[in-house]
Each structure stands twice: as structure tokens, then as C-alpha cells.
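Lecture 7, part B: from sequences to assemblies.

Below are the input chains for today's worked example.
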Amino acid sequence: MTTPSQTVGPYLGIGLPWPDGPDVVPEGTPGRIRIHGRVLDGAGQPVPDALVETWQADPEGRFDSGFRGFGRCPTDDAGEWEIFTLKPGALGDGQAPHIDVSVFARGLLNRCVTRIYFADADNAGDPVLESVPAERRATLLAEPGPDGYRFDVRLQGEGETVFFKL
Amino acid sequence: MTFRDDSASHPPLDYPAYKSTALRHPKEPLVLLPQRLTELTGPVLGDGRLGPLDHDLTRQHEGEPIGQRIIVHGHVREDDGRPVPDTLVEIWQANAGGRYRHRWDNWPSPVDPNFSGVGRCLTDKDGYFRFVTIKPGIYPWGNHPNAWRPAHIHFSLFGRAFTQRLVTQMYFPDDPLFFQDPMWNSVHDRDPKAAQRMVCAFDYGATEEQWALAFRWDIVLRGEDATPMET
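Predicted structure of the full complex, as C-alpha cells:
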């Protein structure tokens, strides 16, 4: 029987952030992209005590190449987070390029799991997206913009992000 | 290979007694994510991420922190007993007076200049971890009238796959404040035995004479589904 989950609480900021947490790849890496967004609560207010973690394949769709693949960023007072990474490749199993995401926060007794897809990629036929009600799929799409790809996490309420049971 | 469903072990996201859940728990049903390669792999973290004293929270400053010196040790295993070697374990906690070294924590108990309250280590080949720290104090919070958090240490674990990621809290035996703590009760309401899995055991055998008391806590991550039997 597994050990139960508990919330990270409000003081995760002393323990979990790393100086290079958002840098899945270092500055200057060719092809480096920024993915950023806000974590918002059911009232549309920013969540300033959340942590976003990401896990993904390398650009060739591999997990065994030594690519760190992992990003971690606490939200700031405006609920903003960011990571710097390379676009994941397709895995070759019919899934479109994606990044798995864990969201931790005060008030979350367990993590919330979601996925980032890319709005400017060909996501046709992705089995996970197809399992999500069509009207909610857009919550999983990171939109390209001048400051990088934007991916907001809405924990509750209108436009609630799709969260997964693993 | 996939990992066995363990959702019965965990607290619900919607738990009104813990007020901060009200606006933060998703209301839409969760969508089942079948475990594929992304979920069955995980980051390899450690090398270069650890300093030599990261596991000893009593030796990270010039002086020693105030408080009861304790050893917290145990094994990280999967629920079939298989050890989880070389996995990063991260902890953070309040000081002996129940104060976190965080800009938002301003309850009137002193910050200890010799205590950051943050530790990291890697499990060894047998899944064993060991920290030296001081016993965290109890502190009040605003969730309900006269609310106090039982003494606890926050733990973060990765395991070997995204699916196994776990953040939890370790409690101490027989804490008199469990009954009024919504985080404890979020597990205890549904399964008192599951709540006990968050409690360490006093470990007299591992105390260091004239130096430190010891507590043992074994952490269990999701294990693999049993191989289907051939019929």
C-alpha cells in the first residue's frame, strides 16, 4: 500500500525550487523555446504558491538519450511560471508531441496531472486528445506567442484545464 | 508494464475541512491517462545536484540549530517491496519553534539563523535514505479556530517514473494534534491505516548515543501491476 499524498503547503518555496529548475536545457542551446503561463484558481485569481513540473522526450522522441527532460518552476506572486526546453519529438506510437505536467500547490492534497500539446503542431489522431471531450481539448494546447508558448493552468471553473487520472 | 492504481491511498482533492481546497480542486471529472512511455519513465536526478552536507540540516551553517537533534531514515520501496535505488529525496520543514524560513511565515516564533530547513539526498542501491535534522516544532495556522499543524517534515520523491511522483508529509508518533488537522484527516477519514503510513516510528536501535534520537520511516511508491496469470 502506497504512502498517501499530502499538500506541498504554502512554504514549498524553501524546499523545492532549484536555481536551474526552469532550464530543461541551458541558455544558448539551439532550438531552445520558452513555455510559460499562469496558475489560476476557481475565482480566476493567481495561485502564487504552486509548483509546475514538466517531463518530456527529447526532440527525437527519446527518453534514453541523457536529455534532462525535466523542468520545475514555482509560481511567482502573479501566478506565473516558465520553463526553457526543446520541443519534444513524437514517440512514434501515434501520440503527438507532448509534455507531461504535475501541478502542486497549497490547497492541493495531491498533485494535478495535465499535458501540454502544441497548438501549431499536427495533433490529429493523438489518442489522449481524442479521449478528452472536444470542447475541452483547447485547455491542453500551448499557444505560440511573442514571449514563447503560453499554457495557463486553470485549476477550477470556467475553462478548467483537463486533468488526468494516472 | 504499468503501475497499479493506488488512488484509494490518497486524499480527495475536494476536502472542505481544508479551506484552501475550495477554489483549487478541479470540479470536472479526471480523464483516464493510460500509462505510455512518458508516464513510465522519469527524470534521472542527482549527480551534481547534491552538496556534501545536503542530508545534514544541522551542519549547513556556522553554528548549530536550536532543537532536538534527530536522525530520520528509512527505505523507499515500491508496493511489492522492490527497493527504489538512486532516487532523489527532498525534504523541507519548520525549525524547532515551528517557524519556516519563508517570507510569508510571520508567526511570532523566532527564525533560527543556523537552520534553513531544507535537505536532499539520494537513496543508495537498497533504497535507503538518511537525514540528520532537528525535530520540527508545531505551529498555528488560520484554517479553523485554534488550528495547529502537527509536527511534520515535507517529503518529495520521484521514484523511477512520472507515475510514481509523490509529495507527502511525515508525522511523528502519537501527535496530540492529529484529531483537528484537516490534512491528516483527509486521509484518516477514509482509511485510518493509510494515515498511519504517514507516521514514522521511534527507532531506539538507531539512536546515536550521546548525540541524536532516531526515527524510521519507510516510504512506499506505486508498484507494478502483477503479471497476468496464464490460464
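Note for the exam: The helical segments of chain A are 127-131. Keep this in mind when comparing with the next example.
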